[in-house]
Amino acid sequence: MYLFPGCIPCLQMCSLKNVAWAGFLTLMMCASGQKPLQTLLVGVDHRTVMSLNGEWHYLVDQSPGRALYTANGEINDKGYAMNEHPNIVGKHNQEYDFSTAPTLKVPGDWNTQVPQLFNYEGVVWYERDFEAQPKAGTRTFLHIGAANYRSHVWVNQKRVCDHEGGYTPFDCEVTAVWHSGSNFVVIAVDATRLADGIPSVGIDWFNYGGLTRDVSLVTVPEAFIDDYDVHLTDGVKFDPENAEISGYVHVLDAPAGTVVTIEIPEAGLKTSGKTDSEGNATFSMKAQGLTLWSPDSPKLYKVHLSAGADKLTDDIGFRDIRVDGTRILLNGKPVFLQGANMHAEAPVRGGRAYSDEDVSTIFGYLKDMHANFVRLAHYPHDERMERAGDRDGIMIWSEIPNWQHISFDKPEVYAKDVAMLREMIRRDRNKASVILWSVSNETPNNPSRTKFLTDLANEARRLDSTRLITSAIIGPKPNGMEMVNDDPLCDALDVIGQNEYIGWYEMTPEDADKIHWTFPQKPVVMSEFGAEAKFGNHGAVNQRWTEEQQVYVLQHQLVMLSKIPQLRGVTPWILMDFRSPTRNIPRLQDGYNRKGLISEDGKKKQAFFLFQKAYSEHAVGKAE
Ligand code: GCU
Asked: Reduced to 3 states, what is the DSSP secondary structure of residue 244?
């Protein structure tokens, strides 16, 4: 969702706080000829859908993307979106043809599927036909798990939606444009990086383009459940004896007074509520004797929701996460988060991770490492990751890609950020494993950034008061062996994430032993630290790029970390080597950031076993 020039006025006109989700989106988009999104469906992976995954025809629309953008930058609805075919005889018409074009697999990035597109960051058009039998009294949405970066969607030549953001889902209503029999969908995906994008142009990960996650058609009754929140009520103090489950169910386009029921048979719980004029039905019910979700017992309950003709069942865990001084409390008990960072890249196969197999391999590594926590860097990953976290008992840090330099001085960029934040929170609000929302990573400490991110942190709290808000802070510049984090952004955070690369980018590995950190009186997660090593490259501990030196740096890190009184979590950078366009030392990096504990093809480096041992002995940090 992005704004062509000339949309600033509408932002100044409305204060973000009082514009309802749909109204805000519509306002933002219709000013620029964008097709507004009606809603974002929650729990789609628990609905019966018609998958459109598979082979899609594709055409490359190289810069400046003349098939997509008109000369004045508008979206061209009369180009490839029409899906016409060239006349073989008769007068000249079109010079494109999806029906004879090669195909790409969806979900999947185009970069690792077509060698010529490996470094391509531009517009690719996707097309596929599908058969349909629309049923009376129902509505149908095209659900896209993610498309990097900007996408425009047409069904049967009608544009149904536009979206900006490469890592969050969106839904486009097709009820009015699809028909019985053969239909077709055309999606233009533009992976071009934008200075006013989120992330912006400079990133240290591979900008995989395409329809990178599941695409499906979701049919629901005319009035249906598009959003819900079912959580353990987070009272002033954790009080399991008087536990309650509360939340809301939103029924889109339901007449006020529509009855909604929430049932959790295994816990013997059932209640109902009525929708208000906004379609919201709030509820709460006493819930004694629940088995609370935790890494040791990742208990999930079947939660049945129904409203009118619509029914949906989700698997939800109930837990309480809060901060108490410098401690993080899970279900009232102090907890230490021992984990790793992870980019959404498929082990061994490479490319964007999107499948059950990718996710189970990744979580297999985390379990093998005795991790109870993972930071999904630097953007929302496939929803399968959160489902795996729920199932396997791995707590999750989820982040929106405000990575380093973002246009923090632009209201339209803030509006994009809010939309992305809402999509992230809306998709995963019922995932017990998600305990932290992160609003950014390593952003420059200046007033417009701090205002922007503080507002965003408060928006996250407004959207979800049941989770902790964090961000990964960079710096401070060492003053001798003193490291004082006095970043004003910390005031807006519940948990401070701290990135540092002592022994790799700065100072010596041994210096870490002497470093003294000072932080605000809040829980701290050392959210990044590490060193690079090429798997199988061996040498002395002072020989960079060797497995021995990586372990040496990390051993000194563990000494330093053990001296930080409020350290409540660690996530070394990073679980696996990952592709990055900025890593170009031949034979050592070859386009990969080599700070992984595991190589990109799944080979465990010595450093993996260092953490496996430390985590099995809970030797890193203390919960209090
Ligand atoms: C930064 C950044 C990461 C990057 C890492 C590195 O801290 O947050 O995205 O990959 O450092 O330089 O390896």
From this structure: strand
CA of 474 to the centre of ligand 1 (A): 10
Measured on CA atoms in the order 319, 322, 324, 328, is the torsion positive or negative? Answer: positive
Q: Which two tokens stand for residue 149?
A: 């970066």
Taking the C-alpha atoms of residue 321 and residue 436, their distance in angstroms, rounded to an integer, is: 9
In angstroms, the CA 264 to CA 245 distance is: 10
Tens of pLDDT, residues 544-559: 999 999 999 999 999 9
Instruction: Output DSSP code: residue 482.
Output: E
Query: Where are the alpha helices (H) located in 330-401, listed in sequence order?
Result: 356-368, 383-392
Q: How far is the CA of 202 from the centre of ligand 1 (A)?
A: 12
Residue 442 alpha carbon, nearest atom of ligand 1: 8
- Surface-to-core class of residue 553, CB atoms within 10 Å of its CB (0-12 exposed, 13-18 middle, 19+ buried): buried
The SS3 of residue 569 is strand
Distance 152 CA to ligand 1 centre (A): 31
Q: Provide the angle, in degrees to the nearest 10, between the axes of the packed helices 411-428 and 21-30.
A: 140
The pTM of this model reads: 0.94
* Strands 516-518 vs 333-334: parallel, antiparallel or unpaired: unpaired
Nearest CA to ligand 1 atom 12: 204
Give the nearest ligand 1 atom to 203 CA: 9
Q: Would you list the DSSP string of 484-538? A: E---GGGGG-SEEEEE--BTTTBS-TTHHHH-EEE--SS-EEEEE----B-TT--
Phi, psi of 126 (to 5 degrees): -110, 145
Region of 155 on the Ramachandran plot (φ > 0 left; ψ -120 to 50 alpha; else beta): beta
Quick one: pLDDT band at residue 233, thresholds 50, 70, 90?
A: confident
**Res 96 pLDDT > 70:** yes
Residues 6+ apart with CB under 8 A from 496: 470, 471, 473, 485, 490, 519, 520, 522, 523, 524, 525
Q: What is the mean pLDDT of residues 262-284?
A: 97
SS3 helix, strand, coil % of the chain, rounded to 5? 20, 30, 50
pLDDT of residue 259: 98
Nearest to 169 by CA among 190, 194, 142, 188: 142
Q: For residue 235, what pLDDT is reported?
A: 79
d(CA 515, ligand 1 centre) in Å: 21
Indicate which atom in ligand 1 lies nearest the CA of residue 378. Answer: 9
